[in-house]
Design brief:
heterodimer, A: 236 residues, 6 helices, globular, B: 175 residues, mainly alpha, 3 helices, 0% strand
Chain lengths: 236, 175
């Protein structure tokens, strides 16, 4: 589990809120990735895009369409926030797959912060946009009247559980994948030269983790979009 | 602090639950997100949306231009077809005219030839009639002479006048 330990970059043991740590380093690298893909890659502004520019356009188009499809046309103006979350998570996940790297998104502190940001953002947005009408999110008018109070209680609970599931899903996926690879790597270390099976297993799990890294980033932002839609259109 | 941190690191199995590192992680996460947001919002996203819009514009312009050219091609084809049809009509007219002219010339020539032929035929008929008349006269003379000779050979005396009258009567009756 030492791969998940937060360490100061420049020696010492104290970790204050401002201390540059391996968290700082790997988060900075996600920024570098974003810069390379979205600033350096689109430098040409070409009508016929280069490979890296078309990749950037592909990601842009994909996330933009998702925001528009899930949150509706009026959700499109929150696209930069969603895009920020997506790019940070996807690059943090992918960088975390490099050997000897540190996966910032495997920490509940990080994912919970993002989940709470989304939670407070959509809750405040919902109240500001709809006023008291936002509460109709919990009052399911399509259900029979007798069931509505029960459903309202369930809805309220599920609403407040959202940030928990939202954050644990991402951190748990990241941590579990890395732990599995670590376990297989331990087998390989014990077996020595004959470690064909664990190495094969590590390759397979690594491929799966590549998939999971992208899918979890996508899942995180698509849920954010769903919550955003609830805030914009609370009426079922 | 150092002791406490070490103790926490040892005691807690999961570094994720080491709350001492939370402020640090949260601080750097916020910094990272703000930086990414600023980069995207100020530079990357406007640039990409501009490029996409420009591409869309270029594509629709090109499509419009292609539509225009297609329209022109259709017009050119129509003009070509019209010219072709006109040329056909003109050719047909010239053919008809020429045919009529030739027919006229032909008619004149035929009429002339007919007249000539008729004249020649009339002339020939006259000549034939003359020859026939001549032949009839010769037959009469020959018949009279032959009759005289035959009568003389038979030993019967007869004068020329009587024989002539008889032969003439005979010729008339026979004819």
């Amino acid at each position: 589990m030492e791969q998940f330990i937060v360490k100061p970059l420049f020696g010492g043991h104290e970790i204050n809120w401002y201390t540059p740590t391996n968290v700082t380093l790997w988060m900075a690298l996600t920024i570098v990735c974003v810069l390379v893909l979205f600033v350096l890659g689109t430098r040409g502004r070409a009508i016929v895009p280069s490979r890296i520019q078309s990749l950037a356009e592909l990601v842009y188009g994909f996330i933009y369409k998702m925001v528009e499809d899930v949150s509706g046309k009026d959700g499109a103006k929150y696209f930069p926030y969603i895009m920020t979350l997506f790019l940070y998570i996807v690059f943090a996940n992918l960088l975390g797959l490099l050997p000897l790297s540190f996966t910032t998104t495997s920490h509940a502190a990080v994912t919970a912060t993002m989940a709470l940001m989304v939670f407070f953002f959509v809750t405040i947005l919902g109240v500001v946009k709809n006023g008291i009408g936002f509460l109709s999110l919990f009052w399911i008018s399509s259900a029979p009247l007798v069931l509505r109070p029960v459903l309202a209680i369930i809805e309220v609970i599920s609403y407040f559980v959202r940030p928990v599931s939202h954050s644990i899903r991402l951190a748990g996926n990241m941590m579990a994948g890395h732990a599995v690879i670590k376990v297989f790597a331990g087998f390989a270390g014990v077996l020595g030269v004959g470690a064909v099976a664990p190495i094969f297993a590590i390759s397979a799990v690594f491929a799966l983790e590549l998939l999971v890294a992208v899918i979890q980033a996508y899942v995180f932002v698509i849920l954010a979009c769903v919550y955003l839609r609830d805030a914009l259109h609370p009426h079922h | 602090m150092a002791v406490e941190e070490q103790a926490a690191g040892k005691a807690v199995g999961m570094p994720q639950l080491d709350f001492a590192t939370y402020p640090n992680q949260i601080f750097w996460l916020l910094v990272t997100l703000v930086v990414i947001y600023l980069v995207l919002n100020k530079v990357a996203l406007p640039r990409i949306s501009a490029v996409l819009a420009e591409r869309q514009g270029t594509i629709s312009n090109d499509i419009a231009a292609a539509e225009d050219l297609k329209q022109k091609a259709v017009e050119a084809e129509a003009a070509y077809n019209k010219a072709l049809a006109d040329a056909r009509v003109e050719a047909a007219r010239i053919v008809a005219e020429t045919k009529a002219e030739i027919q006229k010339d032909l008619n004149v020539a035929i009429a002339k030839a007919d007249a000539e032929i008729a004249a020649k035929a009339a002339e020939s008929e006259k000549a034939i009639a003359e020859i026939r008349a001549g032949a009839l006269e010769a037959v009469k003379v020959v018949a009279k002479d032959t009759a005289k000779e035959i009568v003389a050979v038979l030993g019967t005396k007869a004068d020329a006048k009587t024989i002539n009258a008889a032969v003439t009567a005979r010729l008339k009756g026979g004819a």
